Task: structure prediction
Amino acid sequence: MSSAERYIADLRQTGDFARVLALIPYARYLGLSVDLVDGDPITKLPADPKLIGNPVLGALHGGTVGALLESAAVFKLLWESSSDAVPKTINITVDYLQSAKAGLDTFARASITKHGRRVANVQVRAWQREEGRPIAAAHAHFLLKSSVT
Amino acid sequence: MDAFDTQMAKAFESFSPHMRELGFEVVSVVHGVCVAKIAYRPEFVGDPASGVLHGGLVTSLLDSAGGAAVLSALHEPITLATLDLRIDYLRPAPPGKPLLARVECYKATKHVAFTRGVAYDASECDPVAAMAATYMLHTRKIRSAEKTA
Result:
């Protein structure tokens, strides 16, 4: 078992995402956190002035919204996938639905649309005030094997 | 690069807090093609075992380079917003090296601009990621040219 696999097995036992997040430098940089809400991981990107893309609109940078969506999809797979490998992003398409306010926390929830042996298709939505009013959505494919054979 | 492109490149590097924070640098922007760069930093890493950059950083770089390419193609200081952005991750970004992006705006209509591009380290012929993104144009009336980007 590699150290990554050990952490994933440990995460599925304890539900303690903080230990996994602490290992990912860019997740720490963004200040991401994950809470289990009724057993479903919700990823949070806290409001932070350094993430402002457009100061006139007071809007979050689109790249950080993309990073939140991709991260939320990975955390969902770490939590629920039967694979021991760290999922690798094959591709992601982000739809920007409305300008995200830099002064508000942003949340994301992922759902696994299809979980195959090698590939998972995941959909993600991000929101600020209400989950029913998404600011962005994404769908992504992930490779679930640690090596392509 | 003419006066407009030079001024716009400067605005892109300095106007957005997040771009300043990431050290986003416009290498060149002319005739609707933008080459931009972000230097490697340990806090941008997504996979601690390999030191590979996080996909979210690749997203931020390509999103902003695409925006600059659109403004260069239109050659006027307007507001715009990313409508959607797709990224294919072709191979890991090697640790320790700056990440570059080359994005072109190949079509602009009255309301929408279309871009495509790649992220790479050594040569754009051997890309790390491929992107396609669309941008909505004239998202907000602006009072002065300096409020663009």
Q: What stands out?
A: The beta strands of chain A are 33-37, 40-45, 52-54, 59-60, 88-96, 106-115, 119-127, 134-143. Chain A touches chain B at residues 2-4, 23-30, 49-57, 61-64, 66-68, 70-71, 86, 88-96, 99 (CB under 8 Å).
